[in-house]
Sequence to fold (781 residues):
Amino acid sequence: MTTRRTNPKVDAVIVGFGWAGSLMAAELSRANMNVVAIDRGPWRDTFPDTPLTADPDELRWKTRRELLAPPHDTTLTMRNTLDQTAVPQRDFGISELGGGVGGQGFQWAGMAWRFNPWDFRVRSETIERYGMARAEDGELQLQDWGITYAELEPDYDRWEQIAGVAGQAGNLRGKLTSRGNPFEGPRSREYPTPKLKTLRMMEIFNKATSEMGLHPFTIPCANVSQAYVNPLGVTMAPCTYCGFCSSYGCGNYSKASPQTCVFPALLNNNPNFRLITNACVTRVNKAADGKSVTGVTYIDQNGSEVLQPADIICLTAFQMENVRLMLLSGIGKPYDPLTSEGVVGRNFSFQTVSGADLWFEEDHINPFIGAGGLGSQIDDYNSDNFDHSSLDFIGGAGILTLSRDGTPIANANKLPPGTPRWGSGFKRAYSNYYQNYGVLFNQGTSMPIKRGYLDLDPTYKDPFGLPLLRLTYDYARNDRAMATFTMNRAIQIGKRMGASQFSAFNFAEKPFTTAIGASNHTIGGAVMGADPTSSAVNSYLQSWDCHNVFVVGASAFPNNGGYNPTGTVGALALRAARAICGNYARKPGALQKG
Amino acid sequence: MDDEDVRTLKAVFDRLIPEDQFGPSASKVGCLDFLDAQLTGGYGEASTLYREGPEQPHEEQMLQKAQFIAIPRERYRAGLQALRAYILETDGASFADLPPSRQDEILAGMEQGTIKLGMALNTGAFFELMLTNVREGYFADPYYGGNKDMAGWKMIGFPGARYDYRAYTDRTGQKLNLVPVSLVPKN
Fold:
């Protein structure tokens, strides 16, 4: 490390400038706080990085993952059990960090969910409905979030308004409609823009599931369906169904991202805000009393170490990096998997995925028309929407089909079982089945286990010489049973859809691995709750140990719902920002009694 | 790569994606040029990979997927060398000079794990590397040197680098016959 300099002190420093960081920066600077955001990646925006003349490029963005932070710079090590030696993930895997400002929010698919009310109170609800033995099976470590869906609803609403989410309400202030998802929590108002079009694969799915007495609906999608101006005054253009969303920027200003929805309001002529790019925060610095922090240390693009003093520190990096920064900085007691004591690194969870690949004959799915979050789903087997009394698990999965991803390199792997992978047999099959492939994807809940956690690896280091994060995890018995149950539902639905061939899959049949992309939804490690002995942060995402540290992201979820996490990350960020601008600004200190 | 390596690779690629009624062969649409460009750039140097040691013997078992510290450029060199030595031993010839049926037999053996090209080489992973790259060349935008005349896209019916399908969203289940578009502007 060379020269060490100190920047002028600010009210708040934001570490990681993705969805959570940009939303908090916008809310705090609007409240006249002086804010600095620091991101390890470069500046990046639709123009000049992903205009329409560069965006529709599968090789560059989806195959080579040019929008992600490369494993070379940041990766993790993994093992399934405590007695194993962890190995590093050398190539891209499930841990996908954005490689520039905007984070993953720049290249995400855009499924814009709220969690089900049950997801926030899994422990209490399970005990109430099925008894203590179901909640305490010796392996699971269930704990409530310390907030309810109803408390988070206003923040969900604001996040949807900022992102311009396209969808159709299924539960409007308690009134159920058959046009949306009747299982969702009550919404205070309709989605900001109408739901997107129903494409071919969705038609097939909707017909079959309706005939089966299930309740299909269009997935809420962060691609605006019509021209839209969000509450920050930012304009978005209607989605053109180009299909280049997941792993891509949006050349059309249609997919919600920090760049499209927040940056223009934050970066234009705002004396309260400064952004520092290509700068990696390596440590949060504790005050002498250990009860608060004084700022952060980062390494700038020249390799110099810089101090950034601040009154408030918001860790809004990727889930994994939030946990790693807490461990590197000594904020909160590290978790011990043998005793279940300690809070940092606790309750890692994932997404328990099963489903079925489907092939049809003589159809024209036209899979190139679509959007990243566009599809149909049923929630009849998600959360606790069905009776688990006679089952041996809790939780469930959203069973969905997608109208997206008609990209030719990736889809060459989507051929019926037994099809030749090369030669004329491959070419014949792909010529036919490119237009006739669909998927039923069960995006399942994931329940934390006592022996699933994050800590620092004893061997492997990043380019700065800091330890990598180590993940110890395998699927819970509960989740394996859930995945099998929902896989069998997918097979029934696939048959009803008229698929001529199908191939069921269940990622939870095998040990967990970070190398094979079942999902990129990694969850937990700095979880929220009402009890300081089992959570790292309180219900405002404020550290129990250092009152001026807020840790915001999917790191805060004590368990994962059967949905994509981004909407809940956005809502929690806005909730934390509200608390900071309100009670905390008036009287800095613990916002909640432990 | 020397000339013999290039000859071998061309023969391998043209068995993986041969000339037939569905479309031209891999080499005809530029897959060798594609690979050459890829190996010359960041991909060939594994610039994104985490390559710090120690390399542990149980990495593949733990991750259920092979991973490498060796860079793709080096993996091709070592793989093609091992393939050359193996075929000299078994057939006394070059891969490129064997009849197609024998070439397919060797490739299938590499794919299915019945042929090992030597102790030091993960033969299955080398086969997968070649299959992955030839498919990339065949289906990536012509901008990268392969998929000449968008032959790969025409074969399956992918319209390419278009960005606006609003005129077609209501025509569900219909054959649209869209002529593909590349990122490379038309002359």
